[in-house]
Amino acid sequence: MTASDAINKLLKYSNLNASAFSKKIGLDRPQAIYDIQKGKTESISNKMADKIVSVFPEISKGWLLTLSGDMLQNKNANRIKRAISSS
Asked: Model's pTM, two decimal places?
């Protein structure tokens, strides 16, 4: 997975476009998101990952930084699985 793939997955997950997502996570301008989408920036910085996780705490910071594993943190995924199985 590339950083572009991850950002696009986040946009789909959040149901926001790049501009609205940028504002939501506290970026002054959406250019950083656009640069990742276009492949101009090839990774998600630690600072941006912190911003994303501060607004979307269910997103795994490790996934944002390594682009591998699960997008959602396991504890949240496990909580959802338990809620579904106990219904």
From this structure: 0.81
